[in-house]
């Protein structure tokens, strides 16, 4: 009898101990992302990218859900960035498994919003410490990552997305996802959990792309000819969805609202552009948008700050050195 | 100098309120820059809001100080000791002021408005300046180390007065 009680007591403790990966700090996380030798002055993740300028044209559809001024009918300029995942600012574009879009809205001195989105709609894991192990497995090679996925059934939704994903031939033709959920808060104080996607308005096949900077060249040529447009589509969670679990996809049947269009009108190489100095920390939010308790989302601020601190210091030292040499 | 034995009630309240606040701010700061836990964002938000409170408090405290007599240091201190005591106090005030200012300016140049308990927001730059951010980010870190060292010295001195010299210095603040 007693033994049974003991087992009952111990079971949760032991299962917690077995399931819980060791805790890592923001510094350890960024060390892993940065790799053996840091590329000084560059982001420790998504190091290779290109600056964008453009505006969000809001159709007013989301204004009753969020008091963020951005969603009133009208337009708001942004500084954005396309990038590919990885710590190497000169890596070949087409080798990167993930493509990204980041946006920064400086609506006013007191209201700013940073957004960083990726091509997968969900994470493979639901907390930063397991994510750390996933990155270690990726770095260790195909066998390790297979074993990792086998041990982590929560990665199912991610794997089924991966199985059908075909990289396109352009940054302009990808779908970019918030992955993490946020709350929209309206003027009555009502909260609605949402995820969002930027949906492309062109399709481009990957057929004739080549070269290390294939995607960067393609987008530069494209924007010189035409605006690049995405629809900004919000998906509303209902009570069955867990907004704190970034690994679980929400059913297609959920209500969707298109808030307007993201119109990209210019590109600039990142070292000459304004995006390079920006930390696209998705927890810089305006009034009317709030963070969920999603552990992945909540981990991002400290990690982005650590990466930003490192590269900011390197930028400053580089600048001082240059002045010293003159 | 003066013949007051004790700091005035308002000065004692300021002193201990700020002591509690600053020690919590230091602990919160050191924890939150390392943590990937879900409470990190909450502590960060509170750190910034209370940091603004700290800036207001230190100004109010200095203004309050102008209107009050403060107890003289014990007469048996050497003039060097008196100088060190006074200099360390002014340095403390300076750091208590420089901490929130550097914290705010780092966020200002990073384009991150400060939300103060949902009451109001402090403005941030519309155009981010990463090099100015770097200056104030590093300053905030270095000043925090200097502040911790100075607080440790300050506490050690207070205890030294009380237990070794057995004078009234610590009591004058209780
Ligand atoms: C625990 C999870 C995550 C960690 C630790 C992490 C870490 C980082 C770091 C350190 C950077 C560089 C920041 C800088 O120096 O400015 C970065 C950039 C980025 N991350 Fe994450 N990330 C996480 C999750 C995500 C997720 C879920 C997404 C997509 C929804 C995402 C999308 C991006 C993008 C797009 C960038 C580049 C932004 C830019 O262009 O500057 N990250 N990430
Ligand atoms: C008495 C006032 C304050 C004290 C004692 C204090 C202390 C600290 C400490 C010890 C750290 C960690 C530093 C490091 O590890 O290098 C820190 C970080 C930080 N502080 Fe403060 N702080 C104060 C006021 C403020 C204010 C007013 C703000 C902004 C409005 C602020 C914003 C920050 C931020 C954003 C960080 C984290 C930076 C990062 O993650 O890179 N602090 N603070």
Describe the structure.
The complex is a heterodimer of chains A (326) and B (174). By secondary structure, chain A is of the alpha+beta class. Chain A has a domain at 53-120 and 165-311: Catalase core domain (Catalase HpII,  Chain A, domain 1, Beta Barrel), CATH 2.40.180. Chain A has 7 helices and 10 strands. Chain A has helices at residues 2-19, 26-34, 128-140, 142-151, 156-164, 214-225, 295-325; strands at 48-58, 74-84, 99-108, 111-118, 176-177, 182-185, 191-200, 228-236, 256-269, 289-291. In chain A, strands 1, 2, 3, 4, 5, 6, 7, 8, 9 and 10 form a 10-stranded antiparallel sheet that branches. The longest helix of chain A is centred in the C-terminal third of the chain and has 31 residues, at 295-325. Mean pLDDT of chain A is 94; it is low at 11-17. Chain B has 174 residues and is mostly helical. Chain B has one domain (9-173). Helices cover 68% and strands 3% of the residues of chain B. Chain B has 4 helices and 2 strands, in the order H-H-H-E-E-H. In chain B, strands 1-2 form a two-stranded antiparallel ribbon. In chain B, helix 1 (9-32) runs antiparallel to helix 2 (40-66) and helix 2 (40-66) packs across helix 3. Chain B starts with 8 loop residues before the first helix and ends in a 9-residue tail after the last helix. Chains A and B meet through helix 2, strand 3 and helix 7 of A and helix 2 and helix 4 of B. The site of one protoporphyrin IX containing FE has 21 residues of chain B, from helix 1, helix 2, helix 3 and helix 4.
